[in-house]
Design a protein that fits this description.
- Helix content is about 65%, strand content about 5%.
- By secondary structure, the chain is mainly alpha-helical.
- The protein folds into 2 domains: about 60-160, no CATH class; about 220-450, MetI-like fold (Orthogonal Bundle), CATH 1.10.3720.10.
- A 3-stranded antiparallel β-sheet has the order 2-1-3.
- Helix 2 runs antiparallel to helix 5 and helix 16 (about 345-375) runs antiparallel to helix 19 (about 415-450).
- The longest helix has about 50 residues, at about 5-50.
């Protein structure tokens, strides 16, 4: 080796060592970022679990043992109905409203029964209102349309009225039972200590209520499903169609470049702006359509499920278009050339070759966009999502609330028990998101295997 080559070799070795050192540094940084992200997710999960389970102190307005010589949960529907008549006959109209009403509360008592209730109404009662029914008729509506479990819940909520006077979080409950019992003895001697899971089938199937012990998530969960269904039906075909046009049909003109630039900019616009857009366009300008007036629905407000679904559809539309464009662009051009060579038209090539090949990537982007839509709250508050409604949505023109909005409202309530309810609702929302994403992933994988086969 010559003397001139030796310094070059030493300099190369030095640079190589430096590059390897930088590589190890970046590798450690990437590992640390992943570990931090995993730790954050674990802490988030533990925080939610900590609020969704634990001991509660429950006081009963009426001792359930005084209502029957047998435990209430063993009574039949008719026996529970007798208990209801004997102890809460004056609340039967309220019970019917809370369980079967399909109209706003302010018109419930003046609306004829077939329009007011979503249950079978005998022919003889078709022109009557709820105030014109006697006690026996009211009881028949309740017992004929509620199961034994639902009747038990009605008796529990309207007569027994369990009230959670204190609650303790999960990890404190696990390790401090003696301290909890001592606090119970001094602060709540008449209360009963119960280990409670706030996430229960009853919580999912019960409507919203003003008491933490009684409230459920059914109304908000149905509202979420309705809104997301409309969002998907609106945004997915429109987004994929726009991506196909921009990638396969649009020429490289100033107008098309401007459209693409604006789409990418819209993907970063804050969600509250989309809420204002939805308020202006869907709630006010298109009120005849979004309120259902054009199909004969008696409503003068556009603050409906349809407006909410269309607003969220606009919110995720740029994300769907961008991801669909990338997926279509990734399809090798040789596939198009082979299709053209066999005599296929441009549309046949796009529909039968390009789109199936790009579909796994399109669905991946759609999963990400849908995950964002499910968790949005700000735009729905702007367009008039209700903080509390007592009736389930029955169609796209119904008033609505959604699970994220209820979680937001429950966290603002001073009573600590509503924070437990909010934690339970978060678990339900995450489970719903997991189910929907899993279904989309399975569908994507099926298309990938079909394409590979």
């Amino acid at each position: 080796m010559s003397a001139a080559e030796s310094p070059k070799k030493d300099a190369f070795k030095e640079r190589l060592v430096q590059r390897q050192a930088r590589g190890r540094l970046w590798s450690r940084l990437f590992f640390a970022s992943n570990a931090f992200a995993l730790l954050t997710l674990i802490l988030l999960a533990l925080t939610i679990i900590n609020g969704a389970f634990g001991y509660v102190a429950v006081q009963f307005r009426v001792d359930p043992d005084t209502l029957s010589d047998r435990p209430l949960e063993t009574l039949s529907e008719a026996e529970l109905g007798d208990v209801l008549v004997a102890n809460a006959a004056g609340r039967m109209r309220v019970i019917i409203r809370d369980n079967f009403s399909q109209v706003p509360n302010d018109v419930f008592t003046t609306t004829p029964l077939p329009a007011a209730l979503n249950v079978f109404i005998p022919t003889a009662w078709q022109t009557l209102t709820i105030n014109e029914l006697n006690e026996e008729q009211l009881l028949s509506i309740i017992t004929n349309n509620l199961s034994q479990e639902q009747m038990y819940d009605v008796v529990l909520n309207n007569i027994v009225q369990p009230n959670v006077v204190a609650s303790w979080q999960f990890f404190y409950s696990l390790f401090n039972r003696a301290a909890i019992e001592a606090e119970m003895a001094s602060e709540y001697p008449a209360a009963e200590l119960i280990f409670r899971s706030w996430v229960t089938p009853r919580f999912i199937s019960s409507p919203l209520a003003t008491e933490a012990a009684d409230t459920g998530l059914r109304t908000a969960l149905l509202g979420t499903l309705w809104v997301i269904a409309i969002c998907v039906l609106f945004s997915f075909p429109l987004g994929v169609g726009a991506a196909i046009y921009l990638e396969e049909y649009a020429d490289d003109s100033f107008i098309n470049r401007l459209i693409e630039t604006n789409i990418r900019n819209l993907a970063g616009v804050p969600s509250i702006i989309y809420g204002l857009l939805g308020l202006t366009v869907f709630v006010r300008f298109l009120v005849t359509i979004t309120s259902g007036q054009f199909v004969g629905v008696q409503s003068d407000t556009g603050r409906t499920i349809l407006s909410a679904g269309l607003t969220l559809g606009l919110l995720i539309l740029p994300v769907i278009i961008i991801n669909a464009q990338e997926a279509i662009r990734a399809v090798p051009y040789s596939i198009r050339e082979a299709s053209y060579g066999l005599g296929a038209t441009k549309w046949q090539t796009t529909w039968r070759q390009v789109l199936p090949a790009a579909l796994p990537g399109i669905l991946t982007g759609f999963i990400l966009a849908l995950s964002r839509a499910i968790g949005e709250t700000a735009p729905l508050i702007v367009i008039g999502g209700a903080s509390f409604i007592s009736f389930d949505p029955s169609g796209p023109f119904s008033r609505f609330t959604v699970v994220p909005l209820q979680i937001y409202n429950w966290t603002k309530v001073p009573d600590i028990e509503f924070r437990n309810v909010a934690a339970a609702a978060i678990i339900v929302l995450m489970s719903l998101l997991l189910i929907m994403n899993s279904a989309a992933i399975i569908l994507r994988n099926r298309f990938s295997k079909k394409l590979a086969g």
